[in-house]
């Protein structure tokens, strides 16, 4: 047998992990830490803002009070995010993730600065709109796009680690922000947060992140090279998957989009959770803090763990497990709709487990959609379709907040919604499974059989 034939039949080695792969993942993690300014940092200052801008000298609400501030600001920001994500995919495909990260992060920083210097409620809402523009163009869609571009193997784990940056940032802000606001005032605190957002985002974008492995002569981690053993540059038009036009005509894509709306509506229960905890714990602030800390802290660890589960058994099984745990949490939450009789002995075990189970579902809502969408639509026009698909998640979030409020207004409690949530969670898994199994059969560019498994 000739040397040439041995070489030709030898298995081709997949792309190993390199320093550049690690740097790109670290850049995505830092981008999500920067995004935590908007995702959680600003909300920690709401009590200071409400007391200063939405309460008169006699302690009475003015300018609509806290409900108006939270509702209008949140819904407006989310709707602007949704609008931007409808166009973000095409812009990312045209200009590249790095350019859009730089532009979007700068716009977000401007919005946060406007928020800091807003002299009246109207300017708060304007600032929310500017923040929504920047977030919808950059931090919302781009970290999953970068992860998918750079990682074939261990994609779920890396995505989970990257997305956990928002939890790490939220934990840091929860410690630092209240102290800064008490000592410096909330306006200087927000200025400092704007600086952190822009600086961290730009450092990650300029020094760590690259658009694609081909820009540096590499391949996705775990990808196999061409027949000659050299890195094979991928022509996007030859990648397996839907074109964006064909995806829009496919009913399974829309079924998956509906499941994203449902996920957003379910996860908006996070706005209700502190209210339930406050009722359940009463004046026991230490127990309230313990339950809330359990919820927040486990969010950080669930996201990488979900990535590992996805890489081992597939995204559908990962969704089944985590949303099943969340369903158990929902079934227990009605027990926390009235004050607890006491917290001695093992009385805290079930409430703490409920917080852990609920955080599993909320973490799933950020990790699973990019993965199940990638499996459903393929790599062909993934960056365009990811922005569109995730916009439905944010639509669900915008619809969910008033829906939970309406349930409480009509029934006096949140219990009917809490008991109905497990049914919705089951439908989310079923819709995702159906879309993941059936959509790849209609891909514009067909994939090898191994890429069509629902466990990918």
From TrEMBL:
- Major facilitator superfamily (MFS) profile domain residues are 20-438
Q: Which GO terms describe its cellular component?
A: plasma membrane
Q: Which compartments does it reside in?
A: Cell membrane
User: Where the protein is mainly located, per its record?
Assistant: membrane
Spell out the InterPro entries in the cross-references: MFS, MFS_dom, MFS_trans_sf, Proton-linked_MCT
| The protein's name | Major facilitator superfamily (MFS) profile domain-containing protein
Keywords of the record: Membrane, Transmembrane, Transmembrane helix
Ranked from the top, the taxonomy reads: Bacteria, Bacillati, Actinomycetota, Actinomycetes, Micrococcales
The reply on keyword Transmembrane helix is yes
Output the Gene3D superfamilies linked to this UniProt entry: MFS general substrate transporter like domains
Q: Which GO terms describe its molecular function?
A: transmembrane transporter activity
Pfam families named among the record's database cross-references: MFS_1
Q: How does it sit in the membrane?
A: Multi-pass membrane protein
Membrane-spanning parts = 22-49, 69-87, 99-118, 124-145, 157-176, 188-209, 252-277, 283-302, 314-333, 345-373, 385-407, 419-436
Originating species = Kocuria marina
């Amino acid at each position: 047998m000739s040397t040439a034939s041995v070489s030709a039949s030898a298995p081709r080695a997949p792309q190993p992990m390199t320093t550049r792969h690690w740097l790109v993942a670290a850049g995505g993690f830092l981008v999500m830490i920067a995004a935590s300014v908007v995702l959680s940092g600003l909300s920690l200052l709401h009590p200071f803002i409400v007391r200063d801008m939405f309460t008169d000298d006699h302690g009475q609400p003015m300018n609509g009070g806290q409900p108006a501030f939270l509702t209008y600001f949140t819904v407006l920001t989310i709707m602007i995010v949704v609008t931007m994500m409808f166009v973000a995919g095409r812009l990312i495909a045209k200009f590249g993730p790095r350019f859009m990260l730089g532009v979007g992060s700068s716009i977000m920083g401007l919005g946060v600065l406007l928020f800091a210097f807003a002299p009246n409620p109207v300017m708060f809402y304007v600032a929310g709109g500017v923040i929504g523009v920047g977030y919808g163009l950059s931090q919302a869609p781009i970290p999953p796009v970068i992860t998918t571009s750079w990682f074939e193997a261990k994609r779920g784990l890396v995505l989970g680690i990257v997305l956990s940056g928002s939890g790490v940032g939220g934990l840091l802000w929860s410690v630092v922000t209240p102290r800064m606001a008490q000592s410096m005032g909330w306006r200087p605190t927000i200025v400092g947060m704007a600086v952190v957002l822009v600086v961290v985002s730009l450092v990650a974008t300029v020094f760590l992140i690259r658009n694609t492995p081909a820009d540096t002569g590499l391949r996705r981690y775990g990808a196999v090279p061409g027949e000659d053993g050299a890195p094979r540059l991928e022509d996007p038009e030859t990648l397996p998957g839907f074109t964006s036009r064909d995806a829009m005509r496919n009913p399974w894509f829309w079924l998956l989009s509906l499941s994203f709306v449902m996920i957003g509506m379910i996860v908006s229960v996070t706005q209700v959770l502190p209210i339930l905890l406050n009722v359940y714990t009463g004046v026991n602030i230490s127990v309230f803090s313990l339950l809330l800390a359990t919820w927040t802290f486990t969010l950080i660890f669930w996201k990488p763990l979900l990535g590992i589960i996805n890489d081992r058994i597939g995204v559908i099984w990962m969704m089944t497990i985590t949303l099943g745990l969340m369903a158990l949490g929902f079934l227990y939450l009605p027990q926390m709709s009235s004050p607890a009789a006491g917290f001695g002995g093992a009385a805290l075990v079930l409430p703490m487990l409920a917080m852990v189970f609920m955080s599993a579902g909320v973490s799933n809502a950020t990790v699973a959609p990019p993965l199940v969408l990638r499996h459903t639509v393929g790599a062909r026009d993934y960056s365009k379709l990811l922005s569109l698909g995730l916009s439905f998640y944010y639509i669900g979030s915008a619809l969910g907040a008033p829906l939970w409020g309406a349930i409480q207004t009509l029934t006096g409690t949140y219990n009917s919604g809490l008991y109905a949530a497990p049914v919705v969670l089951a439908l989310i898994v079923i819709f995702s499974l159906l879309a993941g199994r059936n959509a790849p059969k209609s891909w514009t560019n067909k994939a090898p059989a191994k890429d069509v498994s629902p466990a990918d």
